[in-house]
């Protein structure tokens, strides 16, 4: 996973009879079928470690009313922003949070032309993430246990007027079990949170899920239905140092999109190498 310049987090399978990420790459199924995790979205600011904590649920409440404590510019800001790109089946929503004028909640997803196993293998190839995520300059696997990985990530982004924004952090990733959904579809998720670094809050979830057009439209799915794969990313973030998020928002959103599209392309490349 990576942070917001790379803003994301990654997890990797390691036990309970599940293959190692690299072995998944070499044993992908020969037929085509998220999110925790090559997600690398990571911004960093120089700050002190924050106490370790388990990730908490990301708010799904409706968009709040404008923050009365905000400066005079709040009337010109939108409480919610959306971005869509039909080329990739990409969607993203950014929301301000109640009483937290410097915090944002981001939800994004992209369609992937590769099976769940290929996407998961891409997300969990931790030390390979920096090789294809442009804003992620370093991603180190510090510790790995059953269903757990601790990563150290560094990101760097160019801002307007020649400024650079650097972010670094240690991120804990918690890997969920495979879930079986209706008609045999599957989903697997990775929850993550920053335990030390440049964000006061940086936590969320990657999800890799098999979906069908029928599922998307809310109609009944029949047995034997073929599925597509969707990679989803949810993150709630707030810089530790006071840097106005609205000045970074456009860049953060651009990097999240880049990260998801790069993961998509890498998973599809892996699938092509192993045939369809």
Characterize the largest beta sheet: strand count, sense, and whether it forms a barrel: 10 strands, antiparallel
Strand content: 35-45%
Helix content: 10-25%
Backbone CA Rg: 18 Å
Overview of the structural elements:
- This protein is of the alpha+beta class and 276 residues long.
- Helix 2 (116-123) crosses helix 4.
- Strands 1, 2, 3, 4, 5, 6, 7, 8, 9 and 10 form a ten-stranded antiparallel beta sheet that branches.
- It is globular.
- The chain has helices spanning 21-26, 116-123, 213-217, 245-273; strands at 80-85, 90-97, 100-112, 136-145, 148-158, 164-175, 179-180, 186-197, 199-211, 228-239.
- The protein contains four helices and ten strands, in the order H-E-E-E-H-E-E-E-E-E-E-H-E-H.
- It is 17% helix and 36% strand.
- It starts with 20 loop residues before the first helix and ends with a helix.
Brief sketch in words of this structure:
With 276 residues, this protein is α+β, with helices and mostly antiparallel strands. Helices cover 17% and strands 36% of the residues. Strands 1, 2, 3, 4, 5, 6, 7, 8, 9 and 10 form a ten-stranded antiparallel sheet that branches.
